[in-house]
Amino acid sequence: MRLHVTYAGGTIGMVDSPDGLRPGADLQGWFGSQLHGIELASNISMSTLDPLIDSSEATPEDWQAIIDDINAHAETADAFLVLHGTDTMAYSAAALSYALADMGKPVVLTGSQYPLGVVGSDASANVTGALRAAMSHHAQGVMLFFGHKLLAGNRATKTSSWAFRGFESPSVSPMARTGAPWRWYGAPSTGAGLAHPSPYTRQDIAVIDVVPGMSAARLRAMTTPHPDAVILRTFGVGNIPASEPGFVDALTELAQAEVPIIVASQCYQAEVMLGHYEAGNALARLGAIGAHDMTLEALYAKTVFLLSQGKRGADFARWMDRSIAGELTLQD
């Protein structure tokens, strides 16, 4: 089996400097030492992005750089491993899942909370676990391995900045847990895919958390000038302070300007149901789009993906409401 590794950056390959951690470790040499004497070692290729990405500074163009590297090796590799910083790894995993939905080869992202040179680092466990996942016949689509768990890439969210089990999957079960032997639980449905997608480009998307006492003036200021889309993170199953003077009017202005309003929940686990309560009925009347049970990372990356494909209006809403790569649960 042939494996290609894309080293994108992140804590795993950082070293100390007077200004804090920065990229600089000999990751390729370390990677070779981890696999010394293993038959797979001779069937691994590696690319290093230039420049390396601190994942807190990642952009959709960086997502595309990783995708381009994977596509460049798609004919010669059977599986892929992406080494990535943890801060936005779930965003990148979701983004890759949409762009590579039709590739048909497993891609596993991983990283670490400590650099590889630190005693007690989780780097080795995460890399070897990700390798095993990528080589397994169970592997499917884009995945994220971290803290002894394999998660569907577009179902993962970062839950801790320090714990070795730093990622969870709030709406679906993990795909697998490590052990002797590993326990495999299956994968979410694959989704419809989108053939020959256009590259990711940066989009102007406002992500707004609704909070108690939020005024219409503040909402209007946060959406002026009008963005390309608004992700409104609401209470519960999609509720807003609809009685707040002018609040619904501000949203109406966006809808009339054909700005997509995508409604997510602030809850860790939730299924958005617009109109289930009176407080969310105004959004339903405005034609807002429910986010189902998508994580913020999956939702944001999907919004960027669809806008990058030129999807607008009703076409955008249709694609947002369907599964591209297993990122949402469709109710019967």
UniProtKB/TrEMBL annotation:
Which Enzyme Commission numbers does its entry carry? 3.5.1.1
Per its UniProt record, what CDD domains does this chain match?
A: L-asparaginase_I
According to the UniProt entry, where is the signal peptide? none
Keywords of the record: Hydrolase
**Keyword Hydrolase attached:** yes
Q: Which residues form the active site?
A: 11, 86
Query: What is the protein's species of origin?
Result: Schaalia odontolytica
Q: Where is the L-asparaginase N-terminal domain?
A: 3-185
List the record's Gene Ontology CC terms alphabetically: cytosol
**Which Gene3D superfamilies does this UniProt record tie to the protein?**
3.40.50.40, L-asparaginase, N-terminal domain
Protein name (database record): L-asparaginase 1
Q: Please tell me whether the keyword Hydrolase is annotated for this protein.
A: yes
- Which taxonomic lineage does the organism of this UniProt entry have? Bacteria, Bacillati, Actinomycetota, Actinomycetes, Actinomycetales
Enzyme class label = hydrolase
Gene encoding this chain?
ansA
Q: Which domain of life is it from?
A: Bacteria
What are the residue boundaries of the Asparaginase/glutaminase C-terminal domain, all occurrences included? 205-320
